[in-house]
């Protein structure tokens, strides 16, 4: 990796956390400059403008979450085990794993829904990916006799994501992981007793 590529990656890493904690509107270029230790010209040497940086920083943050999903899912073949693994990744998000500030998709979706259409579209694509993964896992689980046949894959995806994202919001709002812990415990029981074949 060249020095320029290393600098660009460092800017993405640090600005992803700034945007995830402060939001697109709340994060100033001064915040980005402070986090990276670079002047505005040094940042704009790698990114066209704040919008360009925000979009790439968001995609970078989502790629970190994707890596967490991949690690959690490794060697898991059973659909219920895979769904539990997804829940375990969400469990760590209020603690700032893998990016400080909580879930980047939740944070961006709430902030950018009416104010930044491009950023909203990036958040929607990331959420589509997660939803589609849960749907595919559930469909395969039904086909293999691991998931009850009456389970509706789209409904399950909505329920799991909405419940987990809500738990992240409550945990962040109250600075109390009890909300996430309760949610995870409930979902694990739900998967075992209501979804598992």
Task: Write up this protein.
The protein has helices spanning 3-26, 29-36, 40-44, 50-73, 79-92, 104-112, 117-143, 153-174, 178-195. It has 197 residues and is an all-alpha fold. The chain has a single domain, classed as Tetracycline Repressor, domain 2, CATH 1.10.357.10. The radius of gyration is 18 Å and the shape is elongated.
Quickly describe the structure.
By secondary structure, this protein is an all-alpha fold. It has helices at residues 3-26, 29-36, 40-44, 50-73, 79-92, 104-112, 117-143, 153-174, 178-195.
Please give the structural blueprint.
Layout: H1 3-26, H2 29-36, H3 40-44, H4 50-73, H5 79-92, H6 104-112, H7 117-143, H8 153-174, H9 178-195
Helix pairs in contact: 1-2, 1-4, 1-6, 4-5, 4-7, 5-7, 5-9, 6-7, 7-8, 8-9
Strand content: under 5%
Quick check: average pLDDT?
Answer: 92
Helix content bin:
over 70%
| Name of the level-1 CATH class | Mainly Alpha
Order of helices and strands: HHHHHHHHH
Count every beta strand, where a strand is a DSSP E run of 2 or more residues. 0
**Uncertain segments of ≥5 residues (pLDDT<50)?**
none
Q: Biggest sheet, in brief?
A: none
Number of domains: 1
- By CATH, the architecture is named Orthogonal Bundle
The CATH superfamily bears the name: Tetracycline Repressor, domain 2
H/I helix tally: 9
Globally, the shape reads: elongated
Give the N-terminus to C-terminus distance in angstroms. 48 Å
Estimated radius of gyration: 18 Å
CATH topology, by name, is: Tetracycline Repressor, domain 2
Which structural class do you get from the secondary structure elements?
mainly alpha
